[in-house]
Amino acid sequence: MAHIESGGGNGRTRNVELNLVPVIDLMSVLITFLLITAVWTQVSMIQIGSSLYGKKSDTQPAPTPPPNADVVLKVDVKEAGYILTVGKQVISLPVVNQQYDDAGLIAQLQRVKQLYPEKVDAIVAMADTMPYEQLIKAMDNLLSTGFSAISVATGGPN
């Protein structure tokens, strides 16, 4: 333990002991926490933005767009259901019995994949008020049908 003695004016001595055990406990907890969370510093992220290819930079060369990038594939998640936009064609998949038509969306995405087999990019748009699970379901449906380059955008109010 740390020990401090100092002489007093009345002939009394002061004896003060500092308890360092709580400080050592705190430091051991902090070091353990640092070591455990060091793994999570490299978390992958979803790039959210208005552009499919992000902001342009002077230092980085412009990325090459994926095949058939001119054909826009967009899935809007609305309260009324999915709205799939392929180029200029709009396909509505309404909610039936309070369930989103995931099977219908997968069937339509497979049809798009047959038309454009090398296309891998897609956009998912959803309002902030919608449940997060619907965004994940839409992204899972896109991934399961072969669209791996997914961008997320806000869809505005429903």
Characterise this structure.
The N and C termini lie far apart (65 Å). The strands form two sheets. The chain has a five-stranded mixed sheet with strand order 5-4-3-6-7, with helices on one face. Strands 1-2 form a two-stranded antiparallel sheet. The protein has helices at 21-37, 102-115, 132-144; strands at residues 2-7, 13-18, 73-78, 81-86, 89-94, 121-126, 149-154. Helix 2 packs parallel to helix 3. The protein is 28% helix and 27% strand. Strand 4 (81-86) and strand 5 form a beta hairpin. With 158 residues, the chain is an alpha/beta fold. The protein has two domains: 2-41, no CATH class; 73-154, Nucleotidyltransferase, domain 5.
Number of helices: 3
Biggest sheet, spatial arrangement of strands: 5-4-3-6-7
How many structural units, i.e. domains?
A: 2
Poorly predicted ranges: none
Provide the helix percentage. 25-40%
CATH topology of the largest domain: Nucleotidyltransferase, domain 5
Tally of DSSP β-strands: 7
Radius of gyration: 29 Å
What is the assembly state of the chains in this entry? single chain
Could you name the CATH class of the largest domain? Alpha Beta
**Class by alpha and beta content:** alpha/beta
What are the salient characteristics of this protein?
single chain; 158 residues; alpha/beta; Nucleotidyltransferase, domain 5; 2 domains; two-stranded antiparallel sheet; 3 helices; 7 strands; elongated
Topology, pairings included?
Elements: E1 2-7, E2 13-18, H1 21-37, E3 73-78, E4 81-86, E5 89-94, H2 102-115, E6 121-126, H3 132-144, E7 149-154
Parallel strand pairs: 3-6, 6-7
Antiparallel strand pairs: 1-2, 3-4, 4-5
